[in-house]
Specification:
Helices cover about 25% and strands about 25% of the residues. The chain has helices at about 1-5, 25-35, 45-55, 70-75, 95-105, 140-165, 170-175, 195-205, and strands spanning about 15, 35, 60-65, 80-85, 95, 110-115, 125-130, 180, 215-220, 220-230, 245-250, 250-255, 260-270, 280. The longest helix has 25 residues, at about 140-165.
Length: about 280
């Protein structure tokens, strides 16, 4: 929004926030700049459709919005509706993408601006950028990158449409098969210690702060784990997954399916010690 407001060749007619938002930033910006702030809105309702017609907009722009547009709404403006998605389409359509790319041990993630159609993140691509993922990255660092890069890519796409230089790349040209990700919910943060060390490393970093953090239990007490250490050179051997097999400079060492990991950061009322067993419940 700040980037768009600096461009005098663009006019913002109205802003529709997510109905569940508790952030006042968009509302305050709308008041400062004389922009209509419409909330709450059922985006596919007759009421909103009739209201939207009166603005005579050239384009609708969606960013981190949580309602699905129906055809009557997304086709209303002259240049239709575009959406910014923090995923490398046609792969990683859907929800909680930054979590899923880490869980899946990807080496890069994408940001895509695309036209909205009847599917979920299936519309023609306007612009896409990719960014590397290293073992030093986690949910927090990917989120920071997305916060910085999404507005840039979205603004560039709007300018391309405005200047008549935009592309429409059908996603089936890239792949006939999409990859869909479902929304994560309460309970999905629990660690399965029977996974490999690499998978546990990816799982923990995928939902670290500001996410819910990976969780486990010890003697019935909740343990939230924000960071684990992983080394591919750790020996591989059979043992009891979830058992704390040692303490290294204060860091609990936990047996996994194939080797072990070190718990580097955790929060709990319980102090982990050798011999304890970490379990799902």
């Amino acid at each position: 929004l700040d980037i768009l407001l600096q461009d005098k060749s663009l006019e913002i007619a109205f802003i529709v926030p997510r109905n569940d938002t508790k952030d006042e930033y968009l509302k305050n910006k709308a008041l400062e700049n004389g922009i209509d702030y419409l909330a709450p809105v059922k985006v596919n309702s007759d009421e909103f459709y009739q209201q939207a017609i009166t603005y005579n907009c050239n384009i609708f722009v969606s960013m981190s919005y949580n309602q699905i547009f129906r055809e009557r709404i997304y086709n209303l403006p002259k240049y239709k509706t575009i959406n910014c998605h923090a995923g490398k389409l046609p792969f990683y359509r859907g929800r909680n993408i930054l979590n899923w790319v880490l869980i899946n041990d990807e080496k890069e993630f994408g940001i895509t601006v695309h036209y909205v159609d009847n599917g979920i993140d299936t519309g023609d691509i306007i612009l896409q950028r990719t960014f590397p993922i290293t073992d030093n990255d986690d949910y927090h660092t990917l989120l920071e990158t997305a916060y910085v890069e999404c507005p840039k890519i979205l603004y560039q796409s709007i300018k391309m449409i405005q200047n008549g230089t935009s592309l429409r790349i059908p996603q089936n040209i890239i792949s006939q098969y999409g990859l869909y990700c479902g929304m994560r919910r309460l309970g999905d943060e629990i660690i399965d210690w029977k996974m490999t060390s690499r998978n546990i490393f990816n799982f923990v970093r995928s939902i670290c702060k500001p996410g819910p953090m990976a969780t486990t239990y010890c003697n019935g007490i909740l343990v939230k784990i924000d960071k684990v250490g992983y080394n591919s050179c750790y020996p591989k051997y059979k043992g009891i997954p979830g058992q704390i097999i040692g303490i290294d400079n204060g860091y609990p060492i936990v047996k996994t399916k194939d080797s072990y990991v070190k718990i580097l950061q955790y929060e709990s009322e319980y102090g982990l010690k050798v011999g304890d067993r970490l379990v799902a419940r």
